[in-house]
Structure formats: C-alpha cells, structure tokens
Amino acid sequence: QPVLTQPPSVSAAPGQRVTISCSGSSSNIGKNNVRWYQQLPGTAPKHLIYDNNKRPSGIPDRFSGSKSATSATLGITGLQTGDEADYYCGTWDNSLNVWVFGGGTKLTVL
Amino acid sequence: EVQLVESGGGLVQPGGSLRLSCAASGFTFRNFWMTWVRQAPGKGLECVANINKDGSDKYYVDSVKGRFTISRDNAKDSLYLQMNSLSAEDTAVYYCVNDLGWGQGTLVTVSS
User: Which parts of chain B register pLDDT below 50?
Assistant: First the structure.
C-alpha cells in the first residue's frame, strides 16, 4: 500500500487543464519537498518537478507543481496526446527513513 | 549528459542472489545521494534503498532489510545492490536514480 495517495486515473480533452493530487502526512509531505515523475508507456520514469514547484531543464512550463501542508498537486495545461503517461509523486518520509511514492495516476488525453 | 546505466539483472531461482551495478557518468558522482527504485510488472514505483554521498548512511524499505545491501564506489563512479534470499516478490525492473535522472532499468526475474 503506497504511503502517498494519488487518484488512480484522470482524463481530459486535448488543450484542457488537469490536476493530479498527492496526499501524505506530517512525516513526509508535511516536512519535505515533493517530486513528480512522468513515465511514458514502456519507458523509464523521468524527473518532472522537484522541490515542489521547480522544473528540470527541458520540461515545458505547461507542467507545474504546488504544495500545501500535507498535500501536493501537479498541474498540466494545454494537454497533448503525448502527455498520456503515468505520473507519480514522491518525497522522503522521516518516520520510515526511506523515499516514498504515490501509487501513480494514469493520465488519459481523450 | 547525465547517464546511469544498470546491469546485472537476469533470471534467478528463489533463494538465489544477484548483484546489480549502475555505472554513472556526466556528473560528479560523489556529490549525490543514490537510490535504487524497483517496479514490479504492471505495478507502481517502490524505493528499495538509498545511500548518502560517502556511503556512510544507508536506508532500506522494510521488505528488503537484512537481504539487500546498497553500496557505492566513488572512485569508480558506481552504485551497487547486492540482493540475497530472493523471492518471486522481488521480480521487478530495478532503476538506478539520483536527483539528476533515472537509468533505463534492469529486469530481475525470480522464478524456478
């Protein structure tokens, strides 16, 4: 059972905006920065957002992140069919002393 | 360009052992914590183990404690994962990860 909670799936039409939530607790998101990862079908994951809201070079500004208390949110605007992927949140857990992930959210662009 | 290249995966019988390696290049390896993450077929991501920059601190998920050992050789820019007493539940793609990127993964299959 994943430590962080994400919705199993979200969907939206091309050009629209979608958000993906990630819920944790005071021992993980409440005390540490959150990362988001994108895993396109059949490929390795890649870094999408780090330190809650920063984008690595090469990641378009259509992707954004935010954090409030024990929850985090990934936002994607101007949806493209190429954005169809699994999205995971992750952070350090101070009680478990290990990096923890959400269960992943499958994005479908209708 | 950051590169993380895993090797050492394969088919192993239950109870057996494997040693995974990760060769790093394109960045100063000794300046980064390193992590092994696995993904069972059709499942989500699970952090297996973390190691700090000089290898003095190591952290493991409960399911592998006492069976897996993470280590690194900063002189060789390499990360390792020694896996013992393997079971079917350890079948997964294992990724080498740090703050800069992910490797392509190496598949470990535990089956008789």
Answer: none
What is the C-alpha separation between A33 and A106, in angstroms, rounded? Answer: 22
Question: Which residue, chain included where needed, has tokens 């050789």?
Answer: B73
Q: Which residues of B touch A47 (CB under 8 A)?
A: 99-102
Given CB atoms, is A87 within the 8 Å cutoff of chain B? no
pLDDT higher than threshold 90 for residue A73: yes
Q: Mind telling me how many Å the CA of A27 is from chain B's nearest CA?
A: 16
Q: Which of B36, B17, B24 is nearest to B82 (CA)?
A: B17
d(CA B2, CA A91): 22
For range A87-107, the mean pLDDT: 96
pLDDT at B36: 98
**In this structure, what is the dihedral angle of CA atoms A70, A76, A82, A88, given to the nearest 10 degrees?**
0
Phi, psi of B90 (to 5 degrees): -90, -5
- Using the Cβ of A2 and the Cβ atoms of chain B, whether some distance falls under 8 Å is answered with yes
Facing A98 at nearest CB: one of B45, B50, B99:
B50
